[in-house]
Amino acid sequence: MFSSLIGRLRITGLVEGLSYLALLFIAMPLKYIWDMPEAVRLVGSVHGFLFILFIYFIFQAHIEKGWSRRELSLALLSAVVPFGTFYADDRLFKKYQ
User: Fold this and answer.
1) Are 82 and 24 contacting, i.e. CB atoms less than 8 angstroms apart?
2) What's the angle, vertex CA 67, arms to CA 74 and CA 80, rounded to 5?
3) pTM score, two decimals?
4) How far apart are CA 75 and CA 90, in angstroms?
5) 68 and 40 in contact (C-beta within 8 Å)?
6) Contact predicate 30/40, CB 8 Å
7) Would you give the end-to-end CA distance of the chain in angstroms?
8) Helices (H), 23-96
9) Can you say whether the dihedral through the CA atoms of 30, 32, 37, 41 is positive or negative?
10) Which region, left, alpha or beta, applies to residue 82 given φ > 0 means left and ψ of -120 to 50 means alpha?
11) Digit-coded pLDDT (tens) for 24-50
């Protein structure tokens, strides 16, 4: 799965999506309810790295696969909407694999 660009995009999207959910639903409550800001620092750093990697793979796929602007927009939007990476994987990325 890592041997192809779309495979790397799909795996990165899955992990990035999970890190985003962990940030929103685990680390943020730990910070604001139980006063544990280190959770956001740790999960936020990991998520930030994965987010940048995911965006890089999206642009690389856009160039190599000839995605339309609509497909590029959907992929980029999926990176900032909770559960968006899972939707994009099902509706967009699978058809290019």
Assistant:
1) yes
2) 25
3) 0.92
4) 11
5) no
6) yes
7) 9
8) 28-32, 38-65, 69-78, 84-88
9) positive
10) beta
11) 999 999 999 999 999 999 999 999 999
